[in-house]
């Protein structure tokens, strides 16, 4: 198994030649680096759009859906972010690749429901971009279960995970979660609230761990409580991670990725031992 990016994402070496990826970027240096890296890693031939007119033409010229767009915030002919607005309005999943960044800009980007943003400010930028692309193209293989008695909380987490291209199921109670897990053994990650009326997050985790180990299912607990002891109690109940609300999107996605990466590595090791 190969690994990608600074985080060490497990990568099987699969090619994605069928993916249609557009790169909206006017820098010759970065377009060359991105094109070369995605071709050698994934056998992807990207479509380069050096200005806003190119981007519009690329969308109009083909009826084939765009799998993913990589876009600078500002392009010639769209110096005020019109290119990103254009992609978002078309519901095209987009990774922003930018050299300009500050906190207020970050807030505006995340409000647009982009997939990710990558900064051009380091030598690993293109590798980080390649990892983000690979995650988006492979996340659909991961089935995630959200357990929360709050419809608002379920909708928020579900929309975040679907933005990253995960398959998502939801349960409004611990009892329903047990039913869904029994019927869907491909679920690899469960995100569960602590405070629920029928079965709380601790008891739900204990019941699950009686039959399903961490090598099959990773569990992240969440809570709005200010009680810092909850995380220790949850981990001792068999959970793998714990987060306090409100989440920062980047941290949430990172925690999800880390748990799924760990699951893949454990499963790969178990397969290698079985063969040996």
Describe this structure in words.
The chain is an alpha/beta fold and 276 residues long. Helix content is 45%, strand content 19%. The protein contains 10 helices and 12 strands. It has helices at residues 28-42, 52-61, 82-89, 103-111, 125-138, 151-163, 174-183, 201-209, 229-236, 249-275; strands spanning 2-4, 9-11, 21-24, 47-49, 68-71, 94-98, 116-119, 143-147, 167-171, 187-193, 218-223, 241-244. Strand 1 and strand 2 (9-11) form a beta hairpin. The longest helix has 27 residues, at 249-275. The radius of gyration is 20 Å and the shape is globular. The two termini are 16 Å apart. The mean pLDDT is 94.
| Tally of distinct domains | 2
Query: Taking strands numbered 1, 2, ... along the chain, how are they ordered across the largest sheet?
Result: 4-3-5-6-7
Order of helices and strands: EEEHEHEHEHEHEHEHEHEHEH
Low-confidence stretches: none
**Total of helices:** 10
Biggest sheet record: 5 strands, parallel
Task: Look at the structure and give the mean pLDDT.
Answer: 94
Helix content: 40-55%
Strand content: 15-25%
SSE-based structural type = alpha/beta
CATH architectural designation of the largest domain: 3-Layer(aba) Sandwich
Overall body shape: globular
CATH class of the largest domain: Alpha Beta
Full CATH superfamily name of the largest domain: Response regulator
Give the number of DSSP strands.
12
